[in-house]
Amino acid sequence: MSIKSSAITPEKVYKRRRVLMAAGAGVLGVPLINKAYGLFQDKQEVEAPFPQVVSLPGEKNQPLIPTPYETITTYNNYYEFGVGKDDPSKAAKTLTTSPWSVDIGGEGSDKPGRYDIADIKGESAIENHIYRFRCVEAWSMVIPWNGIKLSDVIKFALPNSKAKYVRFTTINDPQQMPNAGWAGGPYVEGLTIEEAMNPLTLLSTGIYDKPLEQQNGAPIRLVVPWKYGFKYAKSIVKIELVEKMPKNTWWLQNKREYGFYANVNPQFSHPRWTQATERVIGELGRKPTLLYNGYAQEVAHLYPDLDNRLYFY
Ligand code: MTE
């Protein structure tokens, strides 16, 4: 067995170097990405195989250095637990996430059903993706997600010709959530069926190989890396294939400021702040925001008429 370079390089430098190597390596670099990813767990595991990682073009050529776990799990937006960034990590432990089932149906499904979370996970391969995460509030992180492709779950439901959009509803339980009433009902989000079937789109079940914590949307939440973070509905209880565009919570809250598509676009400012740059949590200064958050190659084809599809209805 070869000598681990972790044995001769300070851990921090080593991790950073491996991530940069992995990020530059592209498709040929899948094994490197596997190792680099595993490193954030435990440097001892560097030589262990880490299967099921899928490298997508948007993950190439970007030095993606994951945000520390501690930051990802303590700087959150989950208004049902309070509106401060540290409220969810303090309050969300009251949310019971097991047992958990998800209703999958809607008029666009020929096989609606209630699925236990274990069955959903058991039927689909868990993938690992290090994605950029950009909040509409102009801050960002890099998150190593574990999750399944949303497209796999949609296929269980046998979509028919009415499946034009996907509507996600999240848990809304005043017994377990101190601020459950903030939006006047459950948090709802939506995607077009094409967005939902895109291989970048995940239903996440973990971060850094640990099961999702409640504040991050346990036990299952949406991940759509080219869109602003409010699309990432947390603690999902219902997924419906529907004919009409869903009315999503933030659009209902303030139609002038939040849209349905909500694609990351540095040229299209929020009415109250610029989206041209972002504050990387844990770093000094700001960096330029990328169109589609850096995933244009994978998703730009979904939006042939860019102007009206980037933000609003
Ligand atoms: N889902 C629910 N149910 N309630 C929320 O308040 N906030 C959204 C999204 N999903 C939210 C939600 C917003 S605004 C963001 S930026 C992300 O979750 C934050 O995810 P994170 O806390 O895991 O970073």
What would you say this structure looks like, in words?
- 21% of the residues lie in helices and 20% in strands.
- The chain has 313 residues and is of the alpha+beta class.
- The chain has one domain: Sulfite Oxidase, Chain A, domain 2.
- The strands form 2 sheets. Strands 3, 4, 7, 8, 9, 11 and 12 form a 7-stranded mixed sheet that branches. Strands 2-1-10-5-6 form a 5-stranded mixed sheet.
- Strand 1 and strand 2 form a beta hairpin.
- Helix 1 packs antiparallel against helix 2.
- The longest helix is centred in the first third of the chain and has 15 residues.
- The chain is globular, with a radius of gyration of 19 Å.
- The structure holds ligand MTE.
Helices and strands, with pairings:
Blueprint: H1 11-25, H2 30-39, H3 69-72, H4 87-91, E1 101-105, E2 113-116, H5 117-123, E3 127-134, E4 139-149, H6 150-156, E5 165-170, E6 188-192, H7 193-197, E7 202-207, E8 210-211, E9 221-223, E10 236-242, H8 249-253, E11 277-280, E12 286-288, H9 296-299, H10 306-309
Parallel strand pairs: 1-10, 4-11
Antiparallel strand pairs: 1-2, 3-4, 4-7, 5-6, 5-10, 7-8, 7-9, 11-12
Helix pairs in contact: 1-2
This protein binds ligand MTE.
Ligand MTE is lined by residues 76-80, 135, 170, 187, 216-217, 229-230, 232-234.
